[in-house]
Amino acid sequence: MTIPGLFIEYLIVGALALIWLYKLLPEQWVSKLLLQPAHLPLLALGLYVVGMVIDFVAWILTSYIKAGLRAWAEEGHTYTPKELVKILKGGGGKVKRGSITSRQIYLAIHAPEAAKEAAMRSSRDRIARGAIINSILFTTFALPSQKYIGVLMILIFSIMWVNFELSSYSYEMKAEQLVKEKIESDKNQR
Asked: CA-CA 20 to 30 A from 9: which of 50, 111, 124, 131?
């Protein structure tokens, strides 16, 4: 993922945080809060930092489940709600394939277009996991009543993240496999 891509991801996650952060500000600040054009770079920087923090927290909270999802995907399972509940209860498994970083480097060297597609899919995963944390914080700080709306948002974003994560990892595994087969085929034709 390029630096501008990460900047946009963190900016989006940080901007989503404004929904609940706004509720935490004292009322006298909110009433006097007038943004001048000179403040916009500072606002963007602040949103970027908030987005980074939220993504880091989201990464910590989802890494255990992510490992389980990836181990499950490597075993060739298909996505069913019953199987997913089993994974979430059992937690993270041992991922058998090579590391994500080595796979990304391999694809970048041998199939740059597949590497770009994998990076775009990964971007979607990060934004979805940031939305989970933002919806938890929104439910906690900005919803005085009707908490069921927040719980529904958390559930929807969680399902989206799981679906995106499985889709991205399946794409990476398949791309790696097909590139290796193509390289092997090219060697055999020589």
From this structure: 111
